[in-house]
Design a protein that fits this description.
single chain, about 575 residues, alpha/beta, Rossmann fold, 16 helices, 23 strands, about 30% helix, about 25% strand, globular
């Protein structure tokens, strides 16, 4: 067992150390099948993986993890993935291994790290023999395979990876036709990865369980946040040469400035089918050299159903948010960095009717394409850009003429952004956006005190959702509170009347929503001539409890279409 920031982690692999002679001189195989393998295989239906290690041969063998029994050791039976490890120091710590699984053409191995409370990752190329490793290293050193011609100097990284991989595979096929297609493809992919500026990061970034990757400075270890294990370190460092190549790559891919006059940048990049959001800084802003954060979007975005199942949302919160977004509330999602704001925004976006016209305005494209939906994306320059050509504030105002059913704004960062937001809402647009703050009350103070927004304008917001990440580095996020804005009309003028906490996850609070008579939900009901939204909420909550709890299907995709079938979401009765 092992302690980490997310508690106690079980060792998920059983390690079996074998002598150099295999079963010949092993006391566990003297009279028939391996006793250790039989004992491990019967343990709890083989929920724990088996790793057979042969230090004398430099080999590790990962047993399949599909519930089927392993009928013998790797040299006698099928169902094993064998990997040759070049660095013999790897075998000094095999007793500390906690988890191992395949990621693309690599084996990711996690072990206890005595210098920290987390796990240490080492990635190993998936080659089976010393000869395959020698071939991999020889091809990686062959510059003729991937030296750039002048006309390829601005080649997209994915095109480059594909070109080099195909070139290497063709060379192997021609020179060594006896090499199988699986081995050939793996070696070609790894050689292509090693040719890029992101060579140190790719074995980590290919893992769909990795959420965010960090580099504090050159020559320091890469570390990252893992969905199951929280904050982990890797054995990989980044040298100054790699730093120069990374800066050149990001500058070329983004087409933004990144230099002494503009030493920081936020942008997104598609690498090996993974959507990455880069945030990086250079000297003189970063005196220790390049620091870098890469946030990795999941290949399959979380739905509201997923967020309920993983504990981010309660059933009650999910029902409230589904009603709010279907009724086109003006919604702000707030929270600290990495608290899951964009994840929740994208999940809500996937619940709206397919017929709605959505317009997105983002400095880093983090919205998701949804098949069969009407989506218009506007990409603006990041706030780091000293001379922006496409300003977010201007594009928000210009959206008045783009006829959106919902305007999805990504992050509202500056006072100019806030003023443009409230101008758009006052003109009748319906918006969803994210902001950084730790509570609804703090956000209101920031808008009114720092950004100069009048409280009568703040009253135009309907709902503020606060996200939190209780433990740094931990994958757990949750909705901290759902707050509706209260408003009144006095002498024909709108007035901000305060906030009402509809739902909170604090221990002293119940899971029963608390609605205010002058809150957004009751006011919207009366404006639509509906006595109350509560019956619709209760019916929706009942359906979510039955369907999410008893089915593997995602019932919340395009849920807004169901909620509108009676003429308005607040009239929904199932």
């Amino acid at each position: 067992m092992l302690w980490s920031p997310i508690g106690v982690i079980e060792h998920l692999v059983n390690v079996i150390l074998c002598p150099k002679t295999g079963c010949t001189e092993c006391e566990y195989a003297e009279q028939g099948p391996c006793k250790r393998l039989a004992l491990t295989s019967s343990d709890d239906g083989q929920k724990t993986k088996i790793l057979v290690v042969e230090p004398g041969k430099g080999l590790i063998h990962l047993g399949r993890h599909d519930g089927k029994p392993l009928n013998g050791p790797p040299w006698h039976a099928e169902g094993w993935e064998s990997v040759y490890v070049e660095d013999q120091r790897f075998f000094d710590t095999v007793h500390l291994l906690s988890e191992a699984y395949l990621v693309g053409p690599y084996l990711s191995v996690f072990r206890e790290d005595g210098s920290s409370s987390g796990l240490l990752l080492e990635t190993v190329p998936l080659v089976k023999t010393r000869l395959e490793m020698a071939l991999l290293n020889e091809l990686s050193a062959d510059r003729s395979l991937f030296d750039d011609a002048p006309h390829l100097s601005r080649e997209n990284i994915n095109i480059r990876l594909r070109r080099i991989s195909e070139s290497v595979a063709a060379k192997i096929s021609h020179s060594l036709p006896e090499v199988g297609i699986i081995t050939r493809t793996r070696i070609a992919e790894i050689v292509a990865h090693r040719s890029t500026a992101l060579r140190c990061f790719l074995p980590i970034l290919l893992d769909d369980e990795v959420e965010e990757v960090y580099l504090d400075r050159p020559e320091s270890q890469i570390y990252f946040d893992h969905r199951r294990f929280g904050r982990c370190c890797s054995t990989t460092t980044v040298n100054e040469h790699d730093v120069d190549r990374i800066v050149t790559l990001v500058r070329a891919e983004s087409n933004f400035h990144l230099d002494r006059r503009n030493p920081s940048l936020k942008t997104e990049m598609l690498v090996c089918d993974a959507v990455l959001r880069f945030s990086l800084s250079l000297p003189p802003l970063s005196p220790d050299g390049l620091h870098l954060e890469m946030r990795r979007a999941r290949r399959s975005p979380y739905s509201i159903t997923d967020l309920v199942r993983n504990g981010t949302l309660s059933m009650e919160a999910a029902a409230i948010l589904l009603l709010a977004v279907s009724a086109r509330f003006n919604i702000t999602i707030t929270g600290g960095p990495g608290s899951g704001k964009t994840t929740l925004l994208n999940a809500l976006d996937m619940t709206t009717p397919r017929s709605w016209r959505r317009v997105y305005i983002e400095d880093a494209v983090e919205s998701r394409s949804i098949k069969g939906c009407h989506q218009v994306r506007i990409r603006v320059d990041p706030v780091d850009e000293n001379e922006p050509g496409f300003d977010k504030s201007k594009e928000i105002v210009k959206s008045l003429h783009r006829s959106p059913d919902y305007l999805i704004l990504g992050e509202i960062q500056t006072a100019e952004h806030s003023r443009a937001l409230f101008q758009a809402i006052a003109a009748g647009l319906h918006t969803i956006q994210t902001c950084h703050s730790d509570s609804a009350s703090s956000l209101i103070s920031r808008w009114t005190s720092d950004h100069g927004i009048d409280k009568s304008s703040v009253a135009l917001i309907d709902l503020i959702i606060t996200m939190e990440r209780p433990t740094p580095g931990n994958a757990t996020r949750r909705v901290k509170e759902v707050v509706e804005v209260r408003r009144q009309v006095v002498d024909g003028l709108l007035r901000f009347a305060g906030l009402n906490v509809v739902l909170s996850n604090q221990p002293a609070k119940s899971g029963i929503p608390k609605w205010a008579e002058d809150g957004a939900f009751m006011l919207h009901s009366r404006e639509q001539g509906i006595q109350s939204h509560v019956p619709a909420y209760e019916r929706l909550l009942h359906e979510l409890e039955n369907e999410i709890g008893g089915s593997e299907m995602d019932i919340t995709m395009f849920m807004g279409e169901r909620l509108w079938k009676n003429g308005h979401p607040f009239l929904y009765r199932g």
